[in-house]
Design brief:
- It is built from eleven helices and ten strands.
- The protein is α/β, with parallel strands linked by helices and 341 residues long.
- The strands form two sheets. Strands 3-2-1-4-5 form a five-stranded mixed β-sheet, with helices on both faces.
- Helix 3 links the parallel strand 4 and strand 5.
- The longest helix has 30 residues.
- It is globular.
- The protein binds 5'-O-[(R)-(carboxyoxy)(hydroxy)phosphoryl]adenosine and zinc ion (ZN).
């Protein structure tokens, strides 16, 4: 018997829906990015995100079903991100999923967005062997997990302050590089000297497991705008110095992410590392992780860019796993801004 899962994602600034057959085949998928809407504000504005989700979700979903020539009776379950994320944004997806589940009389499945990012790696590389170590690194999270099996995620380390993606976004602002920060920093860094500024170890607290990205942010602020001017002070760097700062910042963040992940893989004796989340779209991180993992004999599962940034394929894949374990929710499903672990 084939299984068709509809996934819905609206936790931040991408509205997405996807249809996955048997956990393997993408039957339909759409992602509407709100990047252009939020650019004028220099960051994601929750109310703007909610409104855009409301406007885009149902028409996008309808169009996707039409193009895939799928009628509701062929769908086995509806999976939706219900945690963590911007609460209003989550509620748009959750309410839509509830409405569809009720109207079509289908099981409803709430999905943890972070587990879905990890599921994207499994989907992309089915040979990924359990247990493995996973790094989920996005605008909201910087977590290293020991993944024992599909349903057991042991949190080994996380950030003490900003998430890595958030740091990319804030530092890009400090360097007048615009929004979204990650891709802008990556581009600027290509022309910069990563050793120009000595920030390399500044994201690695002494405890050996966590991350911290607030110190380096202050370092960039002082370098870019001086010690006393604050964030609104004039930019003191020329184009080359901006590129050098971007490259040095990127090197420091990536060094921390790779060090913690590879150390965890070594300590746990796993053969595989998986990475996911928007920051995993960063080519420098992808390359460095492959190199460092290779040195300890580990393979790395890295989904393609479009499965690293937010999407609904990963929600439908994770939803499919829960469906197979009969982990259903009901119409009382709630949305949560945060999750523990
Ligand atoms: O997973 P995601 O799409 O949304 C969240 O769940 O947060 O991640 C978005 C984050 C943003 O902070 C963005 O700047 C960052 O991922 N990002 C990148 C790159 N592309 C996106 N960071 C570094 N380099 C990139 N190429
Ligand atoms: Zn995400």
């Amino acid at each position: 018997m084939t299984q068709l899962i509809l996934g819905i994602e609206s936790s931040c600034d991408e509205t997405a829906a996807a249809l996955i057959r048997d956990g393997r085949e993408v039957v339909g998928s759409f992602v509407a990015s709100q990047v252009d809407l939020h650019r004028q504000f220099g960051g994601v504005v929750p109310e703007v995100a909610c409104r855009a989700h409301m406007e885009c979700l149902m028409p996008g979903l309808d169009k996707m079903l039409g193009e895939a020539e799928v009628t509701p009776d062929a769908i086995d379950a509806i999976a939706v991100t219900n945690r963590p994320g911007l609460i209003g944004a989550l509620l748009v997806g959750v309410s839509a999923a509830k409405g569809l589940a009720f109207a079509w009389d289908k099981p409803l499945i709430g999905v943890n967005h972070i587990e879905a990012h990890i599921a994207a790696a499994r989907f992309h590389q089915p040979e990924l062997e359990m247990p493995f170590v996973a790094l989920v690194v996005s605008g909201g999270h910087t977590n290293v997990y020991y993944v024992k099996d599909e349903d057991t995620y042991e949190l080994l380390g996380s950030t003490r302050d900003d998430a890595a993606g958030e740091a990319f976004d804030k530092v890009a602002k400090l360097l007048d590089l615009g929004f979204p920060g990650g891709p802008r920093i990556e581009k600027a860094a290509q022309k910069g000297n990563p050793k120009a500024y000595h920030w390399k170890n500044s994201c690695l607290p002494d405890d050996g497991v966590s991350f911290s990205f607030s110190g380096i942010k202050t370092g960039v602020l002082y370098t870019a705008r001086g010690q006393n001017a604050g964030r609104k002070g004039p930019l003191l760097l020329n184009e080359q110095e901006v590129a050098d700062a971007a490259a040095s910042f990127q090197r420091a963040v990536v060094h921390a992410l790779v060090t913690r992940t590879v150390d965890a893989a070594k300590a746990r004796g796993v053969k595989w590392i998986a990475i996911g989340g928007g920051v995993a779209a960063n080519s420098y991180l992808r390359g460095r992780m492959q190199e460092a993992a290779g040195r300890i004999g580990c393979h790395v599962a890295i989904p393609p860019m479009n499965l690293c940034t937010d999407n609904a394929v990963m929600i439908a894949v994770r939803g499919g796993e829960l469906f197979r374990s009969a982990c259903y929710d009901d119409l009382a499903l709630e949305a949560f801004a945060r999750t523990v672990g």
